[in-house]
Amino acid sequence: MLVLRDLQNQYTKFRLGYLWSLLEPLGMSLVLWVVFSVLLGSRALGLSPYLLFLTVAILPWWWFAKSVNASTRIFRRARGELAFSTLPPQIWVMRTVLSSTVEFLLSLPVIVLAIALTQDLPGMYFVFFPVAIFLQFLLLYGIGLLVSSLSVVIPDLARVVKIVIRAMFYLSPILYSISNIPQSLHSIAAINPLVGILGLYRIGWWPEEHASVIALVISLSVALSLFILGIFTFHRLKPRILKEA
Amino acid sequence: MSIIEFSNVSLTMPRTKRRQGSGRKHRLRRFAGETSRTMVPVLENVSFTINKGDSVAIVCGKPLLRTSLIRLAAGTLIPDSGSVTSTERVVPMIAIARAMGISFTIRQNAYLVGGLLGMSAEELTEKLPAIIEFADLSNYLDRHLRGAPASARQRLAWSIAMAVEADVYAIDQMLVVGELEFRQKCWSAVDTLRENGATFLVSSDGAKQYRRFCDRALYLEQGALIADTTVPQALVLARTARRGPRGD
Fold first, then answer.
1. What is the per-residue pLDDT across A145-163, written as a single tens digit (0 to 9) for each?
2. What CATH number does the domain located at B93-165 have?
3. What domain range is A139 assigned to?
4. Which of B76, B98, B121 is nearest residue A242 as measured by Cβ atoms?
């Protein structure tokens, strides 16, 4: 299984050109930084240094959006391959998630660059950074299984997912900090699994960033149930996926 | 000794009706319920077993049915009811060439397709020279598939599938394979594999392939298994079925 996974990963290597994976998020965070920090001038949103604050969240966000978007197309693109391949079909989902993960890991130097520019080194809570990466990976795999199998049955799902992703960009603490949300809404906001995960990414620099442990637990359990739901849906729809191939 | 066993297998496959008119018209039609995605029954309560060393021909007028049967045997399709059990590794040779990318080199394609058929990277590295030799593509190894001759795809697909160490080879539509010389090479490879005890499952729309080496034939009609006989008999059945409606 591991060998196969590696193989799949290898294939994606020559499917994608990684030249842009550094420049794209860098450009994005620069634009947002200019708009929200320089032009608007106020530091009301988020925490300082804002450039770093933004970068740390925008890279995982990028990873999330790309992976989920790609998930809607997995089985439409793998049609010919699924017909004869003896590999289990979840490999295709794993491949998509893995390739976006590699892309994310390769874009991490952008954060290093942001640290260098802002001279702000992370504290000891930085250990949660890899934990957040792992959790997000699980979340993405779960969502990938869910979305990819459902979009075989409902082709229109791809459009819906696009809108949901766009909405989640503003509903998640990327441009702003969780502390910008009124205290009473924290546990509602925490239903969004990204809230907890993004909090873990940022905790190294801003220990006050994730307000309550309860919110974190809610976020993570939502992520976990999405994961289980994904696996369940996928296995239910597996015959259908293979038929459409 | 049976290695593949179909018991009461039923299967329906989705089929979209042919699109009529423009995209918008088509969508409107679908909305009004005039066209819909229908499930066509492909197999109904089909049961048979395939023994080790058999060469079985699937004789049937419907390509969808032939392909489905092969995919079921290989496990890349799950039946709606009934069960398919196979104890050995089955290589489905169906439209393998479709998975290749024209912007990859021949070498990359070999790894891609080989991996999809379940070979590991080390295994492939070991077998690559033999595969390329068989496909007669050594001049093109590191060139894009785009620049290789048109038959390169099929040749490569065949060579890789033949290189997989399996006990059952399920071949669909072997007619499409390249020029005469290569075809003969394929046949001799098939023959050596047969002598080594490999099992074959062949489907094609030409009678020649069946006659060539199959010792058993399954004749299917309307999704049901009509006869499990020898090849000449199955072909006679197929011919009468074709002529039947014309009042012959």
1. 999 988 888 878 888 999 9
2. 1.10.8
3. 2-244
4. B76
